[in-house]
Task: inverse folding
């Protein structure tokens, strides 16, 4: 709830890799197909920036190889590392355990907007 509150209060800024919308759309199509149209419209209204640079992709590939993890996940982390003063907030405990030594990643369970 702190993340949503921070976004709503404009205290947090969302910065996503370019595949973010497609990845969320794929999940919505699988888990909530009857509401996917409305959910996608709601998602599209949320303001976020897209970080789409070759250096993000290169770092994402390096993280995937170094950590033995899926590229789509490491692209989120690479986006945080590449973007000044950004941090990946993740609920993926497995990824966090692998990636915490790389910096710029926090567990959602530990996150507070305070």
Result:
């Amino acid at each position: 709830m702190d993340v949503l509150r921070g976004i709503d209060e404009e205290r947090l800024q969302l910065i996503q890799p370019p595949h973010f919308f497609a990845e969320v759309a794929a999940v919505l199509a699988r888990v909530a197909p009857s509401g996917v149209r409305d959910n996608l419209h709601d998602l599209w209204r949320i303001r976020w920036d897209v970080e789409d640079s070759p250096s993000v992709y290169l770092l994402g590939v390096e993280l995937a190889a170094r950590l033995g993890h899926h590229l789509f996940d490491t692209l989120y982390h690479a986006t945080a590392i590449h973007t000044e003063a950004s941090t990946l907030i993740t609920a993926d405990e497995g990824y966090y355990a692998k990636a915490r030594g790389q910096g710029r990643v926090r567990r959602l369970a530990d996150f507070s907007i305070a």
Observations:
- Helices lie at 2-8, 20-31, 36-45, 54-67, 71-82, 93-99.
- The chain has a mean pLDDT of 93.
- Residues 2-110 form a domain with the Rossmann fold fold (CATH 3.40.50.1010).
- The CA atoms of residues 80 and 86 lie 5 Å apart.
